[in-house]
Amino acid sequence: MSILLQGPGSWWQLPGPHQLVEAVADDLDQGKCVVVRLPQHLPNGFYEAVTHHLQWQSGRGQRWLRLPGSLVGEASEERILAWLYERVGLEADEYIADKSIAHLCGQPAFQGNRFVLEQLSVEAAAGWGRFLAEYQYALNDQSYVGRSTFFLILEGAVTTPVPSANTNLAVHTYGPQVGTDDIRLLLRFVHLGFGQAEPALKCELRQSIVAALASADPVLAHQLVSRPFAELLQPAGFLADYASRRSWQVGPVALPLPAPPLALCQQLWTTGGWVHNADRPCVHSALLALHGRSDLLASRIWEGQLTVLLPFIERKRQVLLDRYKDDLLRLLPHTKLLGPHKTVEVQEIAELELGDLYFLRTKPELRRHGYHLSQELYLLWKCRVELAHQRVVDEVTIDELLALN
Where on the tree of life does the source sit, at the highest rank (predicted)? Predict the structure, then answer.
């Protein structure tokens, strides 16, 4: 079972996402109203994670009041105020001549509540935003204990515009807290849940490639990690289908390099097409696939391979230097060409690179160790060259590397 399916808020318990949860909970605990901006297609459980953290902080249950369905589609400031008066039993016109936010805040029946607002329409989000822009000033005269606060969770297109943050109003945006490390940690849990029998190197490669392709999208990471390994090296078809399931459309103007214009980035962010994370902002891999940018996808796959294969190859080089140390000492100093008119002399064994070892394989000192050493040197040198030229190492070569173990 994957971490995404282990209960409400599991993704939100990982270090990066939980930073957002903690920041929101802290602001609510300090008596602030909070607006949170989330892109579409995130895992469920954000609200539950916040309430759980608040309960942990305070040691007691939280009293939350949800917005009724009648106010989700349309919510003018007047209607919001009228509903709040009705909520505390003060709706009679003859009893209150002039309804106001300041008067409402002073009513004992209104004080001490927490209102959570989700799944708002664009119109309702705008109405509540205007209301909170005024409401925050009324809180200046209220104690932290008796305040009623509002928690707006805005998703997708309704995330703009939002009221400006102020002393009593905090605005948080999802993205900068989350990085590739969160995806890598998620994938470790997912792999344990699947229980796949796969060589350690290939498993590590799988997770690293998926993390590079998914960036900060936990849903994509969860789906990709269970795909056949060959598909991870050529994921364009799967990613294009993924984009179609999200109703993303081809728009070449959306992908000028190195990045789309700022306004377009903000538009893409609302649908999840622009990943604004802690590592580096980037266009979602599925959107790249939809636009046929196999070159950029290959670059991400290469990055995923590089972090695993380069250390593996270097460890193998060190093993070979140690294993054949006596033979290599007899071959030093070794002179090698650097360009048509320049040479360099290698004096120390530690300075011998794979290219040097592959060249020296024909010397009697190494040739006597047989065909296996020659093949191992060729394979390691070939992989090192592929990575150096930013080319993806194919699955056949990876399987041959596995055979070295």
Answer: Bacteria
CB atoms within 10 A of CB 306: 16
Say which amino acid occupies 254: A
CA distance 66 to 105: 18
pLDDT digits (tens, 9 = 90+) for 256-292: 666 678 888 888 899 999 987 777 888 999 999 998 9
Which amino acid makes up residue 73?
A: G
Report pLDDT for 152. Answer: 94
How many angstroms separate the Cα of 199 from the Cα of each of 106, 108, 310, 402, 405?
66, 64, 17, 8, 10
pTM of the full predicted structure? 0.87
Q: How far apart are CA 78 and CA 85, in angstroms?
A: 11
Query: Cα–Cα distance between 180 and 187 in angstroms, integer?
Result: 11
Q: In this predicted model, what pLDDT tens digit does every residue of 113-128 receive, in sequence order?
A: 889 988 888 888 888 8
Q: What is the pLDDT of residue 201?
A: 92
Domains of the chain, start order: 11-173 (3.40.50), 180-292 (no CATH), 314-404 (no CATH)
What per-residue confidence (pLDDT) applies to 5? Answer: 39
Give the Å distances, CA to CA, from 227 to 96, 233, 239, 399.
64, 10, 12, 17
Q: Tokens representing 11?
A: 């993704």
What are the angstrom distances between the C-alpha of 170 and each of 59, 242, 278?
Answer: 23, 34, 20
The CA-based diameter of the chain, rounded to the nearest angstrom, is 107
β-bridge mates for residue 155, sequence order: 38
What parts of the chain have a pLDDT lower than 70?
1-9, 60-62, 68-75, 91-97, 191-196, 251-259, 405
